[in-house]
Amino acid sequence: MASLKELRARITGVKSQRKITSAMKMVAASKLRRFQTRAEASRPYAEAMRHMMAELVAATPASETAPILMRGGQGKKHLVIMLTSDLGLAGGFNAQIGRAVRSLAGQISQNGETLMLLPLGRKGGDIAQRAFPAEIVEKLPGTGGKEVPFDVASQLGDRIISMLEKGEIDKVSVVYNRFVNAMTQTPVTLPLVPLAVDEEAPEARKDAPSEADKPLYSFEPDEESLLEQILPRNLKVQLYAALLESAAGEQGARMAAMDNATRNAGKAIDRLSQHYNRTRQANITRELIEIISGAEAV
């Protein structure tokens, strides 16, 4: 049985932990409001651009001269970008990204493709190191829970374009947590290269109109010049939207995890306090019995 001194020390320690988790919860809630606003504001633009590019792909004749961001490479090297956090204490936020990547890796293997991993965030690097050490291209640092500048997505997009042009990769997908609310973050796998045809686009539906009735696109100054400008921009916009979604999801997951930890600490304090009071009462009762027994013996 623990002594009163040990119980007091444990109660003091748990109270200190509760103060820390409560403070972390408030910090995460403050950051969540900012990141949530930005993530929600980016969604319409990213989705509209994604749908526009998908319709453009469906209406553009496939050819070997098409931009590499549209058709992808000729090989089977599939780059998967993992968006995770640099910090822990975020519940299952990073673990579910790890499960999604392992599931995607199985699909890539079944398709006869070669997996290549580019984890963004220290936790993603740790997960990749344990599960796929030989497939890691490089471990990139995350934003550390701070603001997400567009330069991060722009530099990452430029690197992807460079790797595609050099033939180092042929396909690209990004795996991230889409923010739903503070309690829910949904893992999403988004293909970036080659561009996917939008299933909702008129050109992609089974009941699509005939060739004569399909919409015609006019390019100015010309198709190649326009696509060279739009495709890299679309890639960077999709990466930036994913980074914002991941940042908002991280703060939501951390806020929920710290809220649970604070409540559990409160319950632990109640149990320890009850144990302390019972032990103290038992000690007092025992001392009284000893005093009374000694008095009767005299």
What does this protein look like?
The protein has a domain at 44-197 and 214-256: Pyruvate Kinase, Chain: A, domain 1 (3-Layer(aba) Sandwich). 60% of the residues lie in helices and 12% in strands. The chain is an alpha/beta fold. The chain has a four-stranded mixed beta sheet. Residues 201-208 have low confidence and may be disordered. The radius of gyration is 28 Å and the shape is elongated.
A few lines on this structure:
With 298 residues, the protein is an alpha/beta fold.
Strand order of the largest sheet: 2-1-3-4
User: Helical region count?
Assistant: 6
Low-confidence stretches at least 5 residues in length (pLDDT < 50)?
Answer: 201-208
Order of secondary-structure elements: HHEHEHHEEH
Q: Roughly how many Å apart are the termini?
A: 32 Å
Structural class: alpha/beta
Mean pLDDT: 86
CATH architecture of one domain: 3-Layer(aba) Sandwich
- The CATH topology label of one domain is Pyruvate Kinase, Chain: A, domain 1
Mass-distribution shape? elongated
What is the makeup of the main sheet?
A: 4 strands, mixed
Strand content: 5-15%
Tell me the helix content.
55-70%
Task: Assign the CATH class of one domain.
Answer: Alpha Beta
CATH superfamily annotation of one domain = ATP synthase, F1 complex, gamma subunit
How many distinct beta strands?
Answer: 4
Radius of gyration: 28 Å
Family: Belongs to the ATPase gamma chain family.
Protein name: ATP synthase gamma chain
Main location: membrane
Subcellular location: Cell membrane; Membrane
